[in-house]
Amino acid sequence: MTILKTSVRNFLAHKGRMALSAIAVLLSVAFVCGTLVFTDTMNATFDKLFASTASDVSVAPKKNDDAQQTGKPQTLPASLLARLGKVDGVAKVEPHATSQQITVADRDNESIGPSSGAPTVGTNWDESQKKSVEITSGHEPRGAAETVLDSDTADKHGVKTGDTLRVIAAPGDFTVKVVGIATYKSTNPGAAVLYFDTATAQARLLGSTTEYSGYGLTAASGVSDEQLKERVTAAVGTGYTVHTAAETKEENKKDIGSVLDVMKYALLGFAGIAVLVGIFLIVNTFSMLVAQRTREIGLMRAIGSSRRQILRSVLVEALLLGVVGSVLGIGGGIALAVGLMKLMGSMGMKLDMGELTVNATTPVVGLVLGVIVTVLAAFLPARRAGKISPMSALRDAGTPADGKAGKVRAAVGLLLTGLGALALAGAAGADKATAGGGLIALGIPLTLIGFVVVGPLLAGLVVRVISVVVLRIFGPVGRLAERNALRNPRRTGATASALMIGLALVAALSVVGSSMVASATDQLDKSVGADFIIQDQGDNPITPATEKAVMSAGHIDHFTRYVGVIAKVTTPDGKTATQRLNATDPTYSEDLRSETVQGRLKDAYAKDAMSVPEGYAKDHGIKVGDRLTVVMTDGRPAKLKVNAITSDDTSIDKGAMYLDIATAKSYLPADRMPLTGMILAKAADGQTKEAAASLKAAVKDYPQIKVRDQSDYKKLIKDQVGQLLNMIYGLLALAIIVAVLGVVNTLALSVVERTREIGLMRAIGLSRRQMRRMIRLESVVIALFGALLGLGLGMAWGMVAQKLLALEGLGVLDIPWPTIGTVFIGSAVVGLLAALVPAFRAGRMNVLNAIATD
Q1: Domain chopping of the chain, boundaries
Q2: What is the pTM of this model?
């Protein structure tokens, strides 16, 4: 009980000094708890939605990943409707006609589809829809020219009843009038949904009045879902997917769960980085608090306290810090989750705050994490406190210095760094990406831990170098700042290491991202001869009507269509595997300057011919002249002659197999031929501007289509990589904020620790302005030390990663010096800002009181 009282008294006495450590715990726990609450809420929301839309038993086509991309969903025969209605135990059968491969344009010819990645869905209106939505304005669709739109999409795009919309689908474009607005009873998952009468949905979305996309069955009273499933399966056979409501819900959860899991673990990974950085802050805090209480600890030892009791006392303080920070962090996590929900709402996925889900495990995880991390981080300082002898403490000798331990630490750090460097060197020289990936995964943590361990040794060297460049120009004040930074290399190393971790990741990702953009740009310049690239922005295939509009453009030398065909390919060694064949027009050999190791690419466009990639040819012993058995999904078997083997030394279409569109069409039924995925266009000589204008005019009625020239495409790549990097930088900002708190805390506690010294320096003539400058310069040099370590380490990681990317065709190394320079200068600014409060406090000290401090 005495230990507890002492610990509580010390904690309350130093609560101001503990504040920043508590904030670090708070932020880390908040990020973890916020992630858990947000993903749990998303799961609960989708569970509720899936439960409200699932039929007692559903019948759907067998899932076929090898299906051709015809722009229409897989279907079932309409004749199945009558058979299902006769199954014993079926109370009602509702046929579904649904497609997610549509685009909808408003009166201004703007797409009203979601920008969040969610689909635009067209489906038929029936009684089952009333489980999830209700018509809050107008009425249900009653004819071929009517539709009902979901309220979220209507509100976002200003659509109201009476407005007309144009639907762009594979079977053909059509115009409908909005006669009703439907509102979700739970939460709209972000999709734009249009409801049509059943006949219209069949004809316009599926392209057939004799097919449906699936059936929903309602069980009769007294018949369970499992019983009905058995009877349906017995009646229709095993050629269909038959699921109960629970199975449908689980299947949908599995699909969305994979996306949510990626989001969840990515966010938790960044939270883990913040936790790691926070450990350095807590270690420094308790190390300095122990050093400042050396005499107090000595007195406790002198009156009989054992080493174990001193250890317990410090650990109890850490426990209190962990509990306070974790409890506040749990509350912060819930607030963060609410913020994320509002952010998702602004992107089109409106999440009801009433669905906020805080599982019992979330606060437990937050509390346990915060407490364990804090106690473990405080253990080493607490252990050192227990080693203080009563006599040395009473003489104010400080915590015991262990020269041998310092040498061992330096040796271990150098060993780990050396092993990590060897692993990175091995990764850079690897012949295969898989082998190199394992080595870089080993090298990164080894070098990181090595730099952290060897930090105090590096501080003595690097800080002196930085001081020569940055501090010496400030005269005696600069030299004092340098000596203060070098006074305790362990403390300086730990403070800088916290900043190093975040900046190392920023530098590595910057190098990788910049190299990817430079490599892709280089490949475009070298390989692509086409002037324009025409694609659907929603990654849907280009509909026939859209393709016809594109091909009507003038001032074009030629168009090249690019179609993905799924097929099973049997090689001469007898192995069969599913492959994607790129069926293109013969002019593709002009639009893509692809290197070959055998034959010529244009020969692959002969009748019943194809090309294979270099690696595939080596793996299967294929050479020019060999014939492969190709069975396209839904098509006839073909014997195709290999007329070219393309080089793998590229990032554009690496591993692609080419053949003529005419060859693919000769082995596939017309209705199973995939739609065009992309169109390339080459302008007529000297008519590039006219061709661009003509293409844009040709697709003006198709808002989903984007016409890009090569410069536009390069910008698209740069923007996509930039958006990803900015998102990652934003998440890493949490770790950097915690690191900055560490710098502030170290300086604040250092000022308290040096109170008498500051008083003496003021007494002998150091002005307040000089004192503040000294503290600021000390902070700047620590921040620059961390930045140099982090940026140097991160660039090394990034360069090794680029060597592995070069094996995949991304062979250009591009170090973004402007970004690196900005981060380095920004680190100095951060150091300056971090010192403002500690420097102000140091400058305001009363000289006599400071000298009298014991």
Answers
A1: 1-56+245-400, 63-238, 407-453, 457-527+710-854, 541-703
A2: 0.82
